[in-house]
Structures are given as C-alpha cells and as structure tokens.
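Narrative of activities, Objective 1.

The group set out to show that a structural description can be obtained from nothing but a protein's sequence at a throughput compatible with the screening campaign. Below is one input-output pair from the validation batch, recorded exactly as produced.
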Amino acid sequence: MAQDKTKNIKDKTQNEASKKAIAQLKEKIEKITKERDDYLNGWKRERAEFINYKKDEAKRLEALTRFANEKLIRELIPILDSFDLARQSLLTNASNKETEKYLKGIYLIQGQLEELLEGEGVKIIGKVGERFDPAFHEAVKEVKGSPPGIVKEVIGRGYILNGKVIRPARVTVTKEEKTDNED
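Output recorded for this entry:
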C-alpha cells in the first residue's frame, strides 16, 4: 500500500508538473500568437502605406512630366510672337510676288512650330468675338462697342499648357457705350 501511496503521490506530482508545463506552454503560445498578430498587423499597415506612397509618387511624377516642358515652351512663345510681327510687317509692305514667297515660308514655319507645341499639350487662347475672361485674357485696352465684354482685337496670343495658363492673351475689350442721358 505504501507503494501505491508513493505512486499516487508521484503521479499527482507529475500531473501537477504536467499541468504547470501545459499552462506555461499555453501562455507561451498566447504570447507568440499575440506577437505574430502584432507583426502581421504592422506589416499590413506598412504595406498599405507603401501602396499609398506608390500612388502619390505616380501622381507627382505625372504632374512633373505634364509640366516638365513649361520652361522650354515659355522660351518658344516669343519666337511665335516674332513670327506674328514678321508676318504683320510683310503684310503692311506686301506689294510684290517676292513678299508672298516670304509670307508663305513664315506661315509654314509658324504652323510647324504651333503643331509641335500642340503635340506637347499647348493650346492657343484669345480669339476675336469671344467673351472676355480674366482667367484667360489680359485687357490692355477698352473700346466702345456692343455688347460689352467681348474681345474686339487680340494684341498678343495667350497659351495654355495642359490646362494651366502660362501666358494670358492680351486683348482689346468692348465696353458699354454711354448714352448722352447717363452723364
């Protein structure tokens, strides 16, 4: 019987040790599971932040490429202005066939330059007859006319690059004529 008691005590001690070891293992498993979940959640957050970063960088790069040529285009605009001046000068002095040849050449070169700029996203703004818009036009002169607020003459063309005004059109605008009774 004493052996049975000793065996029972031994079994009890082993059971308690086993229970204690199992409890410790469960605690360790819970701790490791919590760490795993923390790392997984952290990784998911970082992954989401990285995806957002990539999207933001793609947008920034797109904006950069859309307006990368702006400096060059700003430098080309005075050349177009020079073509306009040369054409006007030749038109005022046009009297012979030689002048017509020069004008044709100027029109061709200017047209090629305008096509090139159009291909890069540049649009020419400022047309006679359109409504004056201070976002796109710079009024340099007002003349009496009806209806008021209409572009009467384009003194210098304006340009838009991919929706951004890089130079407003310089225009003459009609203003309301005063009648003798309004004074």
